[in-house]
């Protein structure tokens, strides 16, 4: 485990502060600082950027982000046990790390960040998908972030980048790919973590597009996609009958077959359907 700064190795930090990962908080700590620095590099050139990090734990990725040149890191940590270790990181990088204690689902980070902003996090498993959906569905687009570099369980990562015809293709893929370029940039085995989770993990990089790929009202698209995939085994005319009374006509107007199923429809098709449904 190579040194990326003058702070102690993470195993020593965890031992010093008695930081055993808690399953109830979705914690699995990455202890290899070379690996956390590698993840930080997947976020792109961080010089001149503020970075939002969720769930820093003992600060492994935090140190990677700072050592890779992030202008400022805002770390939101729910586990008060981690705060002393993070204070040591802040002292080693004067003026470049702010730590907020609390739940990332309840905190508005924008008062503490200056654009350009990137998000990089080894997300706690129990809140990762909810945070991603929030970041992908703001009221206004472009969003506050330029890119998201996030670690998920591999199954979730595959859902984000999935294409039509795949069993993992669904609402998450549509939300991500409508407004961003999404790709898996790193795979991590369970043994990279302490304690090792039961599943493999993947790092996904999402680059925000200046505008959505295809025209559609965000609320209508979200409603149509949710209804289609909630009953993905059904034909669209049955799965979407609650969306509009004349849904077959609207499917045909969008260039779709009423007998198709949700997993067969590409992003462009769902956007065309959202436009057809929005017409009065």
* Strand and helix order: HEHEHEHEEHEHHEEEHHHH
Shape: elongated
CATH superfamily annotation of the largest domain: Vaccinia Virus protein VP39
The profile of the biggest β sheet is:
7 strands, mixed
Alpha-carbon Rg, integer: 21 Å
Mean pLDDT across residues:
95
Classify the beta-strand content into a percent band: 15-25%
Structural class, by secondary structure, is: alpha/beta
Assigned CATH architecture of the largest domain: 3-Layer(aba) Sandwich
General description of the model:
The chain has 280 residues and is α/β, with parallel strands linked by helices. The protein folds into two domains: 10-208, Rossmann fold; 218-278, Helicase, Ruva Protein, domain 3. Helix content is 35%, strand content 18%. The strands form two sheets. The protein has a seven-stranded mixed β-sheet with strand order 4-3-2-5-6-9-7, with helices on both faces. Strands 1-8 form a two-stranded antiparallel sheet. Helix 2 crosses helix 3 (60-67) and helix 8 packs across helix 11. The longest helix has 13 residues, at 218-230. The radius of gyration is 21 Å and the shape is elongated. The model has no long low-confidence stretch (mean pLDDT 95).
